[in-house]
Amino acid sequence: MIEAAGLSKRFGGQMAVDDASFTCAPGTVTGFLGPNGAGKSTTLRMICGLAHPTAGTATVLGGPYRRIANPARHVGVMLDASAQHSGRTGRETLRLSAETMGVDRSRVPEWLERVGLDPSAAKKRVGKYSLGMRQRLGLAQVLIGEPQVLILDEPANGLDPQGIIWMRDLLRGFAQGGGTVLLSSHLLHEVDAIADQLVLINRGRIVAQGAKAELLATSGSYVRSPDRSGLERALHAAGIQFSASGDGLLADGDGERVGAAAHSGGVALSELRGADGGGLEQLFLSLTSDAGEPGTAPPPPPPGTTAAGSGGQPPPPPPPPGALS
């Protein structure tokens, strides 16, 4: 379980995170999304005790992360897989992690194999690793302690398509076993494929959160006609609100009502179906379209979501020695 309650972080006169509250429950994968500078990394660092909040609290497994004894045995944290000693081999890196956690070193070969690093790769120095290999090694470091919670920042960076599918299966299996996963990523397609809960942050404030299926659900109808202007007039005459969607319209009405309006207006339809939403990409764009435009008010959030605010995210301070972040 991860809980953030009113988390805020100010750097000088700039609010990086503003009153962020959300919960990640056991058995779920929560996708943490937002544009660059939205406050994602700062929020994760506050949850992991690497940044002290200006206001609010964050708990992991019922208490502050800093108070967890031998935390890596309970919470696997990977905030920057590239922050590894380049002079050590992959095997040495994982052995050191195991010894630090009190894990049997004999499990190192098993975990290297499980993350797709063969004996040849295990002997290489990390400085010779690709970014994808560093990601795999980083995942081995956070998983070897058999934690109950995973907190990951951009875990798919550098992975090839096969590696992304492997990671997806790994994290889904972890959650299905009762684990809690919070992951931040800019790869919307991958978050869509793996997450069952979503938290969207923009300009430092949470703008939407909840079950992915509920957030992406859209009522109404999608309708298309060769005579688009005629269709618009027919819908307007029937008092049905609508908006453009590709080469068709999203109408605020069920199929029967929309079809009747088109028939009354003498408009032939080429497509009429229930609206299925624009997917995660459309939700993301609709809630973060003001990103990078200081002083511009964000669009109103969908019903049931929180309102957006302002803020930015300066580069976070470096982690303390020994932290995998």
Concise description?
This protein is of the alpha/beta class and 325 residues long.
Q: What are the defining features of this structure?
A:
325 residues, alpha/beta, four-stranded antiparallel β-sheet, 11 helices, 13 strands, elongated
Describe this protein's structure.
- By secondary structure, the chain is an alpha/beta fold.
- 32% of the residues lie in helices and 23% in strands.
- It has helices spanning 40-47, 90-101, 108-114, 119-123, 131-143, 161-176, 188-194, 212-216, 228-237, 255-264, 279-288; strands at 2-11, 14-24, 29-33, 55-60, 75-78, 149-153, 180-184, 197-202, 205-211, 221-224, 242-245, 248-251, 271-274.
- The strands form three sheets. A six-stranded mixed beta sheet has the order 5-6-7-3-8-9, sandwiched between helices.
- It starts with a strand and ends in a 37-residue tail after the last helix.
Strand count, sense and barrel status of the largest sheet are: 6 strands, mixed
Termini separation comes to: 20 Å
Distinct helical segment count: 11
Query: What's the helical proportion of residues?
Result: 25-40%
> SSE string, helix = H, strand = E?
EEEHEEHHHHEHEHEEHEHEEHEH
Rg, alpha carbons: 23 Å
Structural class of the secondary elements?
Answer: alpha/beta
How much of the polypeptide forms β-strand, as a percent range? 15-25%
Uncertain stretches: 291-325
Which strand order does the major sheet show?
Answer: 5-6-7-3-8-9
Q: Give the overall form.
A: elongated
Summarize model confidence as the mean pLDDT: 85
Strand segment tally:
13
